[in-house]
Amino acid sequence: MNVKQRTISSEIAISGIGLHTGKIVNMTLKPAPEFHWFKFKRVDIAGSPIVAVDADNVSDTSRGTTITQNGASVSTIEHLMAAFVGLQIDNVLIEIDGPEVPILDGSSKIYVEKLLEVGFVDQEADRDYYEIKDNIAYVEKDRKVEIIAMPLDGYRLTCMIDFNSPVLGSQHAAISNISEFQSEISSSRTFCFLHELESLLNHNLIKGGDLSNAIVIVDKEVSKEELDKLSGLFNKTVEVANEGILNNIQLRYQNEPARHKLLDMIGDLALVGRPLKGHIMAARPGHAANAAFAKKIKAQIKRDKNRKNMKVYDPNMTPVYDTVQIMNILPHRQPFLMIDKILELSETHVVGLKNVTMNEDLFMGHFPGAPVFPGVLQIEAMAQTGGILVLNTVPDPENWLTLFLKIENARFKNQVTPGDTIIFNCELLEPIRRGIARMKAVGMVGDRVVSEAELMAQIVKVKGN
């Protein structure tokens, strides 16, 4: 049974302090239509610009995730986004009168409670899942960051952190299904090291930090003078607890930092713009890596969409032109005739076919031990296929030649080997003018894209004809 998209049943007003600005921020969460996803509306700015939660809009990840669009920014969005994704909500408009989402208690707990109070409404459309079909990996070698998404019918997340700290050590957190978010992850608070806290204070940041919304990990010897200074800054007696953290709060879980990193990951992956199905495993993730990984998933979604829109042709269908008819149009001959059939032909597109066999002369000298059909000859085959399209616009095409003017954005994505059948689809990017054609060409073997390029060619009349 298909799961329906859902939004919140009524508006929710939430006010709080921004962690870094220290200013009171007022938010109103509003129901939103299908396929809306999550968008912020900066009601304090003229024109109330919209900022969409999208990986392409990420502008900063230094102390949280910031998105920018239409001249407006919203920062520290991840805990609110995690609450939406964790409760499997699809569409919300967030009106906000400041540049930063309230930090509240440093987790998603209060957001989750507020959302559960009003409840949800199912919508007509099915939930727009993106299902991970093949492994998608992201690596930052210098930071030892590794994230991988693997196929799974569900949404499972696993996270490992290791800060090389004797206090924090290595920690793991995991949920086997996103439905566990509320009970296992949502109340895990943000954390920082004492040396980071001091640096942030010195740089006039965390103005909204009051030691009730963050776990402060003490990773060095601390003098009484330093503790007294912190006590004065936060108007609270500050000491080091046995667990190696400041006594500002008690841990909710022994591995609360790892659980919070998992919370951040769930929130940051909302930047993909759709709910996910898959197993995400991450080692040492952070906001920058999460945002980069969301961008990588988005790029894969775009590739999948392009592939979905590509027609897969039957090589055995009755051709528009066979090899003999092609030779009546093109001046090329063996061994340089690169297409065997024309499968489709219209005023704006042409589809050609090339059977790659081991009998071709080129394999005697091109990687004879591991034969691969050269990319440059795939481009030539594209050009010959496109040449049929252009020559189809003039009478007596045998009296004309097609000449290359430009090749752009050529990419070779998969190897082509003997036994493969390549199908080339060439489409005009604009109408043919003065015999000049600009075409987008894609070569496919089955449902795999093997090559693509943008070509410009011109037809010229053969002298003497």
From TrEMBL:
Transmembrane segments: none annotated. Its main location: cytoplasm. The keyword Zinc applies. It catalyses: a (3R)-hydroxyacyl-[ACP] = a (2E)-enoyl-[ACP] + H2O; a UDP-3-O-[(3R)-3-hydroxyacyl]-N-acetyl-alpha-D-glucosamine + H2O = a UDP-3-O-[(3R)-3-hydroxyacyl]-alpha-D-glucosamine + acetate. Its EC number is 4.2.1.59, 3.5.1.108. The keyword Signal does not apply. It is found in: Cytoplasm. Pathway: Glycolipid biosynthesis; lipid IV(A) biosynthesis; lipid IV(A) from (3R)-3-hydroxytetradecanoyl-[acyl-carrier-protein] and UDP-N-acetyl-alpha-D-glucosamine: step 2/6. It comes from the Bacteria. Keywords: Cytoplasm, Hydrolase, Lipid A biosynthesis, Lipid biosynthesis, Lipid metabolism, Lyase, Metal-binding, Zinc. Zn(2+) binds at H79, H260, D264. The active site is at H287 (proton donor), H366. Its cofactor is Zn(2+). Catalyzes the hydrolysis of UDP-3-O-myristoyl-N-acetylglucosamine to form UDP-3-O-myristoylglucosamine and acetate, the committed step in lipid A biosynthesis. Involved in unsaturated fatty acids biosynthesis. Catalyzes the dehydration of short chain beta-hydroxyacyl-ACPs and long chain saturated and unsaturated beta-hydroxyacyl-ACPs. NCBIfam families: lpxC, PRK00006.1, PRK13188.1. Belongs to the LpxC family. Belongs to the thioester dehydratase family. FabZ subfamily. PANTHER family: UDP-3-O-ACYL-N-ACETYLGLUCOSAMINE DEACETYLASE 1, MITOCHONDRIAL-RELATED. This is Multifunctional fusion protein. It comes from Sphingobacterium bambusae. The gene is lpxC.
